[in-house]
Design a protein that fits this description.
This protein is of the alpha/beta class. It is 34% helix and 21% strand. It is built from eight helices and eight strands; from the N terminus they run ααββαβααββββαααβ. The strands form two sheets. Strands 1, 2, 3, 4, 5 and 7 form a six-stranded mixed β-sheet that branches. Strands 6-8 form a two-stranded parallel ribbon. It is globular. The two termini are 35 Å apart.
């Protein structure tokens, strides 16, 4: 396949992460540029900012089980700032360099904490990747990639793997076929993702591989037993 055709028919890996979080009941913003306070330059971006509320339920009669890795949260507001990578999980420099204060900018953009607490919350996110007031808001830094890494402040509980993301999506579409049938209004990548998930003419390994190519992951899935040290 030529590069032009690949670009034409492929979708970004961020879109696969988007559908995973959307099916888990999150409301999302994608590709959020964070600009300098004194100029037009974009200093960094948030791949995905996602928020989910404690009382979220889909299908009241037969509730859809969401992934506890991202959904288990004791506060009303569950906010995730997600960095997306096709290979090993990692965070870009702008998110780890405290002097740049990009987490401060992200917190101000989202607006779930008062300005008076911005320094406290940002310090916790830089140090541990998580902050909570134990009642209203929990904020967590997440990454998604093909392999775990122990080079970040966040551990495996806040690192998603592409094979797990794909498996969740496929299971959701297969377990709730009727409820997820009316997709004509969806973006085309979601429609194709559902069609691949429900295609009974292919095996699980082939399905996983086709989905990974559709979202430009190549052969990075099914390597979660390997960790970068």
């Amino acid at each position: 396949m030529s590069e032009d055709r690949n670009q034409r028919w492929g979708f970004s890996s961020e879109r696969l992460a988007y559908w995973y979080l959307r099916l888990n009941g999150f409301l999302l913003l994608e590709d959020v540029n964070l600009h300098s306070d004194t100029g037009s330059q974009a200093l960094t971006d948030i791949d995905i900012a996602a928020v989910r509320f404690m009382n979220r339920t889909e299908n009241y009669i037969i509730p859809m089980p969401d992934d506890p890795k991202v959904c288990e949260c004791s506060t009303l507001i569950n906010l995730i700032l997600l960095e997306v990578k096709s290979s090993t999980n990692r965070m870009n420099g702008p998110w780890t360099n405290r002097e740049k204060e990009n987490i401060h900018r992200a917190l101000r953009f989202v607006g779930v904490v008062d300005e008076i607490r911005i320094n406290e919350v940002a310090a916790s996110l830089y140090e541990t990747g998580v902050w909570t007031d134990n009642e209203l808001v929990t904020i967590r830094m997440f990454t998604t990639g093909a392999r775990y890494s122990n080079r970040m402040v966040i551990d495996e509980t806040q690192q998603l793997l592409w094979d797990e993301v794909i498996d969740f999506i496929v299971k959701r579409f297969n377990d709730y076929t009727e409820q997820k049938a009316d997709t004509g209004h969806w973006p085309i990548d979601g429609i194709l993702l559902r069609d691949l998930s429900l295609n009974n003419e292919i095996g699980d390994s082939e399905r996983r591989l086709l989905i990974s190519y559709l979202f430009r992951l190549g052969r990075t899935v099914r390597r979660h037993g390997r960790q970068e040290n």
